[in-house]
Automatic annotation (TrEMBL):
InterPro entries: 6-PGluconate_DH-like_C_sf, DUF2520, NAD(P)-bd_dom_sf, OxRdtase/DH_put_Rossmann_dom, TM1727-like_C_sf. This is DUF2520 domain-containing protein. Residues 143-285 form the DUF2520 domain. Signal peptide: none annotated. Residues 8-125 form the Putative oxidoreductase/dehydrogenase Rossmann-like domain. It holds the Pfam family Rossmann-like.
């Protein structure tokens, strides 16, 4: 007779604090069968969020969360993390699992807790959070950068990520900052890029000869600039993730210096000079990736 596999232990989970990341992780862990028993929610917004999305959690102080929990998730801003770690170390007990979600830090920052006998994990979801119901669901398709102090901790971190549907990716302690910089560059700076493109396209649509009313594309709710950009940007993102730099098209890829120069002059007419600056910098990066002629961007290079 074959014995059924022993299910993984269900843990009493505490969240410090109930911001966007902590709440989403709490929801995902609860959906995986763990018990979210306590949460620290210092602001009115976080209390409302926790009451709505973590209904089984008792709200209290950091000490209350530590006392109630077997797994403590520290989802606080990097600037607050050392202070919170010291508080958890002072109130904690040996055998507790403490995981932080800071992308740029490994487990070294958790040394005060490790010295007290806690198991320390760095578990960073490579995902953006918008404080909506979709946040927890997105974790199931996300990679998590995990860094641990030993093989046992590695197994625990990987198991927790797999339980909520994510993919664990091991990041060396020494490479956490570079890992996080890459994610911020790709995700946060993408927002700046698209915002600039929307600004320029809005100016083009609302130029001196624009129609009194513009039709929307497919009856969508977004503004017309966003609707024009959306299919192009989505296709470009999919292409570069699949094909790398060879996905580049447009005037830079063609070596069309005259068009690039006209783009620059047009963007410099906008009220915000940062749009043209961003175009110049990213065009230079695109040219390097495409192997464009060395003099393609002579007139658009950024001055030191």
């Amino acid at each position: 007779m074959v014995n059924a596999p022993t299910p993984a232990p269900r843990l009493d989970v505490g969240i410090v604090s109930a911001g966007r990341v902590g709440t989403a992780l709490g929801e995902a862990l609860a959906a995986a069968g763990h018990r979210v028993v306590a949460a620290h929610a210092p602001s009115e917004a976080s209390r409302e969020r926790a009451e709505r999305r973590l209904p089984s959690a008792r709200l209290g102080t950091v000490d209350d969360v530590v006392a109630a929990s077997e797994l403590i998730v520290l989802a606080v801003p990097d600037t607050e993390l050392p202070t919170v770690i010291d508080r958890v170390a002072a109130a904690g007990r040996p055998g507790q699992i403490v995981a932080h979600t800071a992308g740029a830090h490994g487990v070294g920052i958790l040394d005060p807790i490790a010295r007290g006998g806690g198991m320390v994990l760095a578990v960073h979801p490579a995902m953006t959070f918008v404080d909506g119901d979709q946040d927890a669901a997105r974790l199931a398709s996300s990679c998590f950068g995990i860094t641990t102090a030993d093989p046992f901790g590695d197994a625990v971190a990987a198991a927790l990520v797999l339980e909520i549907g994510g993919t664990p990716v091991r990041i060396d302690e020494s490479q956490r900052t570079l890992y996080h910089a890459a994610l911020a560059h790709g995700a946060n700076n993408l927002i700046a890029l698209i915002t600039d493109a929307v600004s320029a396209l809005t100016a083009a649509i609302d130029g001196p000869h624009h129609l009194a009313e513009q039709a929307t594309v497919d009856g969508g709710a977004a503004g017309l600039p966003e609707q024009i950009l959306a299919p192009l940007v989505r296709a470009s993102l999919e292409n570069v993730l699949a094909l790398g730099p060879s996905a580049l098209t447009g005037p830079v890829a063609r070596g069309d210096r005259a068009t690039v120069e006209r783009h620059r002059r047009a963007l410099e007419t906008l009220p915000d000079p940062g749009v043209a600056l961003g175009y110049r910098v990213l065009s230079a990066r695109a040219a390097a990736a495409a192997g464009a002629p060395a003099d393609l961007l002579d007139s658009t290079e950024v001055q030191p």
